[in-house]
Amino acid sequence: MNVSTLCLAILFDQDATGYEIRKLSTEGAYSYFVDASFGSIYPALNKLKQDGLVTMQIEHQEGKPARKTYSITQTGRRQFLESLFEPIKHDVIKSEFMLMARFANYLPKALVAKRLKDRQEHLKQTRTMIDDLREEFSDKPETVQWVFDYTSSCLNANMSYLKTHGDQLCNLSDIETAERDAAE
Amino acid sequence: MNVSTLCLAILFDQDATGYEIRKLSTEGAYSYFVDASFGSIYPALNKLKQDGLVTMQIEHQEGKPARKTYSITQTGRRQFLESLFEPIKHDVIKSEFMLMARFANYLPKALVAKRLKDRQEHLKQTRTMIDDLREEFSDKPETVQWVFDYTSSCLNANMSYLKTHGDQLCNLSDIETAERDAAE
DNA sequence: TCGCACATGTAACGTGTTACATGATTAG
DNA sequence: CTAATCATGTAACACGTTACATGTGCGA
Hints:
The structure is a homodimer.
Chain A lengths: L2 H9 L6 H9 L11 H13 L3 E6 L7 E6 L1 H10 L8 E3 L1 H7 L6 H28 L5 H31 L2 H9 L1
Antiparallel strand pairs in A: 1-2
Helix pairs in contact in A: 2-3, 6-7
Chain A binds a DNA duplex through helix 3.
């Protein structure tokens, strides 16, 4: 999913500024899937406006930069929906944790333990966020809830595995390195 | 994880050509996490050689391009392992399926059903691949098994949810659009 | 008063993909 | 005979990030 599509998806059911779109994509409702930055959002929004897929309302503010609120147009809605008909790619997963785990036998126990703890913490936070969002979006179409429930369920399974098998990975880590590290 | 790191990870316990590295990253043991192409692998390998992190043995073959087998050096091993000590990023997930599901209420039932079926099929294939690899790598360190088991477990939960809740999403799809499509 | 949230935008840079060029062998 | 597999490599391109530039108002 490119940044333009992300913008259309967000604007589909709410108007927003570039700043807000970025917030939603890094901290809010869409942050689980994407993570776009200003450098890509602002140009994308300008292009979408040129193509007539969104409109912009400027709200001038003294001293501050003008607040530019974008709204999706009918054309934008249609084109976005049409794009969903095109063949989709399979999920892409990039996990540095998995790479680390794969080589845990060469790493000190303390490091592996910390990584496991951090991951569990982050997973928990993400699930809390998803569950909060589910509440917040309770007025939105049920498909939105479905996605949150699905995600939450996968997150639970993931956490559950770490809870029951995390220690196992720890015990496979390189104890000697850990001792050497402790001695230093 | 950049392509150089991927190469070092693969070469860590086996020699390989650029061609083989690509196969491993798109179809083999590493394909669940990454997907690198020739255009990035060959330059990366050359750079790693320049930096003394890998060595290369040329095997000339009549008519064919020379087969260049790369091996990791002690320096390469050390540097790779050291890189695992650096702070890691959280998992990155990009799912076009989730985006589609989020807007399923605007899409015809037939499309949503097909996407669900395809996803379930792909998930199943991935799990089969992971389980096969677990067998194949039974002589490798136990950490390797741990990663496969963890992945397999998450995959199972994912499949399980789709099996029990997939129809629900289908029923939220836009029936009228489906009928319109069927009429065409 | 220090830093953060708000708010927009550009230029340089990094990283990777796609498409092309080249060519033998082998399985269907 | 045609497509796929093996095998390497480059150049153009796409896409996105990081860092910079600019500036106000508010809360600790």
